[in-house]
Amino acid sequence: MMMKARALIAEDEPLLAANLQAELERLWPELETVANVRHGAAAVESALALRPDVVFLDIRMPGLTGLEAAQALAEDWPDDAGALPAIVFVTAYDQYALQAFEHSAVDYVLKPVQPDRLAQTCTRVQAALKTRQPNGQPSNQAAALEATLGQLRHLLGAPGLVNSAGAPQAAKLGVIQASVGNAIHMVPVGEVLYFEAADKYVRVITAEREYLIRTALRELIPQLDETRFWQVHRGLVVRADAIATAVRDEAGKVHLTLRGHKDKLVASRLYAHLFKAM
Amino acid sequence: MTSMSASPLDLTSPEVRVQRRGRFWMRGLRSVGYGALIGLIITGLTGQSFGTTMVHSMCIATMCWFFIDLGRIPLARWKHRNAPADSPEAESHWPGWPLMLVIVVIGSVLGFMVGGTLASWLTNQPMPGYLRGSLRQTVALVLTSLVPALIITYWFYSREAIAGHEAATQVAQRQAAENQLKLLESQLEPHMLFNTLANLRVLIGIDPPRAQLMLDQLIAFLRATLNASRSASHPLEAEFARLRDYLALMELRMGERLQTHFELPAELAGLPLPPLLLQPLVENSIKHGLEPKVAGGRIEVRAARDADELVLQVRDTGVGLADTASDGTRFGLTQVRERLATLYGAQARLSLAPCDDAEGGTLATIRLPLPAATAR
């Protein structure tokens, strides 16, 4: 028995995108493809606007990778929008990704797409969608969300997947060198309260002031001591001992207050598990 | 003395330590053997008592070995005391010839005296007569201890240096094979291969003539890649044809996100070039320049002549160097540089620079000497 559902496809190669849509139409006629986009940022934007039931994300795409798009979706998915879409990753070959997928039980499809394998995926997606239908048990929905978040957490922590593959362990930074006018300010990392991504830059906030450095957050993170600096959102890294309180809301987000600073920060549901009583 | 080899062997590993210890005792045994040989020669030449001479000779040889072979280790430590902790020097047991000569002289004098005393005590006989008297003693010392000690030290040194060289050669060969494999792996990148096959699979269903064309291009590309390591050079126009095959495959995959442009003046078409020299540069342009760029862009491959140099350029309008600097292993660039250095020495160079015009991106330039016939 086929169920009605809506799908989004994100794949940068036009022929492959069209083919995946055609194969899905053949195998699952009741599945309507509501958007077929060419890059990660478009995938997030369309998914948030169209709220499909299932998204097919190519891993290597320009702009955001499939994994980054999935993270953005999980973090930005509105609370009133119902369940997070089922996520299926698509990849031609990626040793790190495949290992991670196997371990985190995320569904994935290999290119060239084999119809038999895609049919299996369709069956699995239908089973997953059934548990999270609006008339289903709320507890089921919550469990399904927590399962998806768990899978994503696992993927984000997998070696070689998010950071450039096989990159050697970066040396840890002692000071942040920020240019202000024609001077370079040496900011000890111990004084930094938090780092926040701002396009290609990172805002560096200390108790006294704020700096802007021209390094992407994803390049900065491997250079920070992960026991001292916690990533709490895809665009936010906080010094753990600068956090005063953490309060979880119904939607699963965690609101943070800082010691000696008025800024309020929000940790996404993907990182909410970091904040629990001992 | 194993440490004389220039190979990057790990001198601190347990196996190497055990090996070193084994060689140390082997040298000791051999030294006793050489002592016996010297004793035989002395008996033959001077007609001294066989037993006493043999004991003296072997005792002196053993002591000489003991002082020389053991003395060189602290001396080497002292000499390399400023070397960084993990360097081969820090673990070296070879202090170099000048210091070694000093230790051979001191070691053989000490060995002669201690060994001689030991032998006199063992045999209850004084030193054989030919060794008495200070001039005689000096001559004997030089003839029976110092000269043999020098010769034997040199002998041990050269034997083990040769062993070290062999080990180094093996390591070098293994590294060459590994590089070859990495090169092949980078050229037949699985991600590219499977994506191309995925496109091919789709095309077979909707546009068979185009699928056939694509398959032909893939075949030409694979053949060129597999043959590249076997032939020393091919004409520049063949290089351009292979790059066209590769980029045609990429154009099909990337659709309107990729445009290509080639410039090859007819008079340069026949010039020889190492096969697929430009391939890693074009791949970098795709992988680090255009693939990450949402809008895509253009790749231009150009050949030109500048005085007596051939100038080859690969330019893309991708995201540029700044955003990719920390990405990847730089294997492609290193490999191009190594090939250039091997084939042309200092005469060829590769440079990589950002393009500062409105379109941005990266420009890779190779400069090669023109072959003498065309250079005029």
What does this structure look like?
The complex is a heterodimer of chains A (278) and B (376). By secondary structure, chain A is an alpha/beta fold. Chain A has two domains: 5-157, Rossmann fold; 175-274, LytTr DNA-binding domain (OB fold (Dihydrolipoamide Acetyltransferase, E2P)). Helix content of chain A is 31%, strand content 30%. Chain A is built from seven helices and 15 strands. In chain A, the strands form four sheets. Chain A has a five-stranded parallel β-sheet with strand order 2-1-3-4-5, with helices on both faces. Chain A has a five-stranded antiparallel β-sheet with strand order 10-9-8-12-11, with no helix packed on it. In chain A, strand 4 (86-91), helix 4 and strand 5 form a beta-alpha-beta unit. In chain A, helix 2 runs parallel beside helix 3, helix 3 packs antiparallel against helix 6 and helix 4 (95-104) runs antiparallel to helix 6. In chain A, 38% of the residues are buried. The model of chain A has no long low-confidence stretch (mean pLDDT 88). Chain B is an alpha+beta fold. Chain B folds into two domains: 2-176, no CATH class; 190-375, Heat Shock Protein 90, CATH 3.30.565.10. In chain B, 61% of the residues lie in helices and 11% in strands. Chain B has ten helices and seven strands. Chain B has helices at residues 14-46, 50-79, 97-123, 134-187, 190-206, 208-227, 236-254, 279-290, 331-344, 372-375; strands at residues 234-235, 258-263, 272-273, 297-306, 309-316, 349-354, 362-369. In chain B, the strands form two sheets. A five-stranded mixed β-sheet of chain B has the order 2-4-5-7-6, covered by helices on one side. In chain B, strands 1-3 form a two-stranded antiparallel sheet. In chain B, a hairpin with a 2-residue loop joins strand 4 (297-306) and strand 5. The chains are: A alpha/beta (278), B alpha+beta (376). At the A-B interface, helix 1 of A face helix 5 and helix 7 of B.
